[in-house]
Recover the amino acids of this structure.
């Protein structure tokens, strides 16, 4: 049984987290990027 990913939360907006969120967005998966600091 497979499940579709509808949305994803990425915790940490550093280099790796930003890249993961970018790849998810390019794949058409809505992603929410959270970081302890409000500035990006």
């Amino acid at each position: 049984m497979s499940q579709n990913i509808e949305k994803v939360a990425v915790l940490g907006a550093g280099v790796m987290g930003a890249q993961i969120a970018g790849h998810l967005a390019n794949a058409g998966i809505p992603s929410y990027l959270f970081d302890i600091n409000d500035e990006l």
